[in-house]
Automatic annotation (TrEMBL):
GO terms for cellular component: Pwp2p-containing subcomplex of 90S preribosome; small-subunit processome. Keywords: Nucleus, Repeat, rRNA processing. InterPro entries: HAT (IPR003107), TPR-like_helical_dom_sf (IPR011990), Utp6 (IPR013949), UTP6_C (IPR056907), UTP6_N (IPR055347). GO terms for molecular function: snoRNA binding. SMART domains: HAT. Its main location: nucleus. Residues 10-79 form the U3 small nucleolar RNA-associated protein 6 N-terminal domain. Gene3D superfamilies: Tetratricopeptide repeat domain. It is found in: Nucleus, Nucleolus. This is U3 small nucleolar RNA-associated protein 6. The keyword Nucleus applies.
């Protein structure tokens, strides 16, 4: 090892001499740099080196390079040889690291990222080596192809990379999308040049994009992929030149994915963006050819949508969009399709500065149609209710709509009742609120109304001064329920009693509720909290001990925490003599698979004493 280190020191000597001669640091700082570097070198010479050794050393050298650059700026000097030496060392570390640990994808990516800035000419070679180990990952191929396009702009080289990638990953969406993007980008770039040869080249690029699309049809079955392709074609630079491809994609979508709501949603949104289906259906190859000729004859780079997409007012585009959704909910009468429809109308109404009346009319019509269809979601009923409550006679309409919704959406009756109670909560109508609460419990059964009980307690707590008795009645009823989810109400009931009555009353209630099934751990925790808050130096610990003992009585078989809490209590506030007894009780009571975990927690507790 000593000989290797000596050789490295001799190799790095010119760098140290340059640093010393420049005066950018003191002798001590330079010595510290040398010692640190030697420490990292020693780790790499060891037989049991790890990936961390390379990562730490590389980061150290990057920090050193940054430090030298900062010193250059501060002292207005230049040290190109020193910086070059550091960069070469970093590159060597990356090469050795990737050779030693070729399966570490992150190290390869870090190497590539560094080389893009310091040595871009070598990036292609690094990618090629990386693919030997990580060619099974389509994202690596995709990154390689995109970088090659950005760095070289050599379509032939880029195409070869993507062809190799597709041979390995024929059904990869990321590779196909990236390649498609490049092909139509190249097409748009060539369009800017006005001569026949480039026009032919552009046409060839378009044909490649079409072939790529057609090849994927048998391999990729994800509808979202084809919608992304169509979205790419809509970009301003490509919207005209890809029009025939758009037409083909839409025809295939309607043929293969007719039952997908997102397809109909996308087509409706296209109408809103001004890309009308009638315009698309009427376009011909001849029209596209004529447009290409005009592009060749003019010196202007950007040609308007003149002969393909007719200009339409926002009002007309909204109406056309609405018509597509109307057709969609007839073709696909599902809750999902109705959700797309109503969400689109809600989005339109976020901005009503222009064509506000048209947008509001469309939203109202969509809500009305959705309600009549019996397929509108609860979320949209909530939006409808909020809208109606802003109108003069809205409450009466809301009551009618929610009653009708209850009759047709029985599986979601609890959600509708919850929405109904929220309406009366907002309007402050206590009697109606309680009426709906009782009605829901009677019709659905208490166990299906847990959310309604939470809502009722929250409502009456807000009006506790006027309706304190009603809140107490609800809490008492909630505490009596034997369904496990209702057990949590007992802790709240206990807290409410302490807050509004007395400690003695809270203790009495706690003792009573301890006997009620099912057991509730939160009840014991809450009583412990109350006892601790009320405790003084003269207060006996018997009541606190009772709470901890109750917790281990009911939950000590399956919960190690209750035993640890009891042990802490006896250690800090109770009787130290009981600690060892409780420890033995815990080990004999807990399920066997929890004993080791408990012993470990107890050992940690002793260490932290």
């Amino acid at each position: 090892m000593a000989e290797v280190l000596k050789e490295i020191q001799e190799r790095d000597l010119p760098e140290y001499e340059s640093i010393q001669a420049s005066g950018i640091c003191s002798s001590d700082e330079l010595r510290k740099l040398m010692v640190e570097r030697e420490r990292y070198e020693k780790k790499l010479i060891q037989s049991k080196k790890s990936i961390i050794n390379y990562i730490e050393y590389i980061q150290f050298e990057k920090n050193t390079h940054k430090w030298v650059t900062e010193k250059e700026n501060q002292l207005h000097c230049s040290l190109p040889d020193v910086k070059r030496s550091i960069i070469q060392r970093i590159i060597k570390l990356y090469r050795n690291g990737t050779q030693q640990f070729p399966q570490e994808e992150r190290l390869w990516k870090s190497f590539i990222q560094f080389s893009k800035k310091s040595n871009p000419g070598q990036v292609s070679g690094i990618y090629e080596k990386m693919l030997g180990y990580h060619g099974d990952k389509d994202t690596v191929w995709c990154d390689y192809g995109l970088w090659a396009y950005e760095f070289t702009h050599q379509l032939k080289q880029v195409t070869e990379i993507f062809f190799r990638a597709l041979k390995r990953h024929p059904a990869s969406e990321v590779i196909n999308l990236a390649f498609f993007d490049i092909l139509i980008k190249e097409t748009a770039r060539i369009t800017d040049v006005s001569n026949a040869i480039d026009l032919m080249e552009r046409q060839l690029g378009l044909e490649r994009a079409v072939v790529l699309y057609r090849n994927t049809k048998t391999k990729i079955k994800n509808v979202a992929y084809y919608l992304k392709l169509l979205e790419r074609c809509e970009e301003p630079s490509y919207i005209n030149c890809t029009v025939l491809l758009q037409k083909e994609i839409i025809e295939d979508l309607m043929k293969n994915f007719f039952a997908e709501p997102m397809v109909w949603d996308f087509l409706a949104q296209r109408e809103l963006r001004g890309y009308n289906m009638i315009d698309l259906q009427e376009v011909t190859v001849q029209q596209v050819a004529e447009l290409q000729e005009r592009q060749m004859e003019t010196d202007e780079v950007n040609i308007p949508h003149e002969s393909i997409w007719k200009s339409r007012s926002l009002k007309l585009r909204i109406e056309l969009c609405f018509k597509v959704y109307e057709k969609a909910v007839v073709a696909l009468p599902t809750e999902a399709m109705w959700s797309y429809f109503i969400n689109a109308m809600l989005d339109l109404n976020h901005d009503i500065k222009s064509e506000g009346d048209v947008k509001r009319h469309c939203l109202a019509k969509a809500f009305n149609m959705g309600h009549k269809s019996q397929l509108m979601s609860i979320v949209h009923y909530q939006a409808l209710v909020e809208m109606l409550l802003k109108s003069p006679n809205g409450l009466q309409q809301v009551e009618i709509i929610l009653q009708e919704a209850l009759e047709c959406k029985k599986s979601e009756a609890n959600k509708i009742y919850e929405l109904w109670m929220q309406v009366y909560s907002k309007t402050g109508n206590q009697s109606k609120f309680y009426e709906i609460f009782c009605r829901a419990n009677n019709e659905l059964g208490v166990t299906k109304c847990i959310d309604l009980w939470h809502l009722a307690i929250k409502f009456y707590e807000a009006y506790s001064e006027e309706h304190g008795k009603k809140l107490m009645v609800i809490l008492q009823e909630a505490a009596k329920q034997i369904h496990p989810e209702f057990a949590t109400f007992r802790a709240y009931y206990l807290e409410y009693t302490m807050r509004n009555e007395s400690l003695a009353k809270a203790r009495e209630l706690y003792d009573e509720m301890c006997q009620m099934p099912p057991p509730c751990l939160d009840l014991h925790k809450k009583m412990i909290e109350i006892e601790l808050q009320a405790k003084t130096k003269s207060t006996p610990t018997s009541r606190l001990r009772l709470c901890y003992e109750n917790a281990v009585h009911y939950f000590g078989k399956t919960n190690t925490d209750v035993w640890i809490d009891l042990l802490k209590f006896e250690r800090d506030m109770g009787d130290l003599k009981l600690v060892s007894v409780i420890y033995d009780r815990a080990k004999s009571t807990l399920d066997p698979e929890l004993v080791d975990s408990f012993i470990a927690e107890y050992s940690l507790l002793k260490v932290l004493e």
